From TrEMBL:
This is GyrI-like domain-containing protein. Signal peptide: none annotated. Residues 18-202 form the GyrI-like small molecule binding domain. Pfam families: GyrI-like. It comes from Tepidibacter hydrothermalis. It comes from the Bacteria. InterPro entries: GyrI-like, GyrI-like_CCH_Lin2189-like, Reg_factor_effector_dom_sf.
Length: 208
């Protein structure tokens, strides 16, 4: 049976547009670190590299390579962990050039470090790109979080974060870090800004 994240992992990728608490397990990702405005060409290039790796891995059986434990699956959505450079945290308006990010695409559990490296080498030969040297294959473990589906433009996300933070205050919870995760359910290249669906998530802890 094909693993489809939209069906088998709804609780992680398709939450309601109201705050909810979730415990996120550890997952494996191809990742690229960066800094600056996400509207830049560098950011688009990094996304392209992550997708080229993800699809190369999924298509290995077509090349006659069947990794141990392989199963058919839908490629996971793009995700990003976002932070701000220290000097920009006190500014009243968001300076996108000061954003620090790690963008990533989750990979199935059967993917080992060796297999990930093998896929990177395959893509380097077929579709060389300087960013392939910056790709990391790591696990990420969010643990206890609050999440909510944000509908609309990325620029309107502060309103959704405000709802989530109010929920925390009312439920004896507190945000444990200013860093947050975004999961891009919609393809921004093909979707009107007011129709975009993005999962917003940040780590929480119980307030003492």
């Amino acid at each position: 049976m094909k693993y489809e994240w939209r069906k088998q992992a709804k609780e992680l990728y398709l939450p309601k547009n109201k705050p909810e608490i979730v415990t996120v397990p550890s997952f494996k990702f191809f990742m690229i670190d960066g800094k600056g405005n996400p509207n830049s060409e560098d950011f688009s290039e990094a996304i392209g590299v992550l997708y080229s790796l993800s699809y190369a891995l999924k298509m290995l059986p077509k090349k006659g390579i069947i990794p141990d434990g392989y199963f058919d699956y839908t490629v996971f959505p793009l995700e990003g962990i976002w932070d701000l450079a220290e000097e920009a945290r006190t500014l009243d308006t968001l300076d996108k050039s000061k954003l620090i990010y790690t963008i990533m695409i989750r990979q199935p559990d059967f993917v080992t470090d060796d297999l990930a490296q093998e896929v990177i080498e395959i893509v380097k030969k077929k579709k060389p790109h300087p960013l392939l040297d910056k790709v990391k294959f790591n696990t990420s473990d969010d643990g206890l979080c609050i999440q909510m589906l944000h509908l609309g433009s990325y620029d309107d996300e502060p309103q959704t974060f405000s709802i989530m933070e109010n929920y925390c205050e009312q439920n004896n919870l507190k945000r444990s870090s200013k860093i947050h995760r975004e999961i891009y359910i919609s393809d921004a290249r093909k979707t009107q800004p007011d129709k975009l669906k993005t999962v917003l998530r940040f780590k929480i802890e119980h307030d003492k």
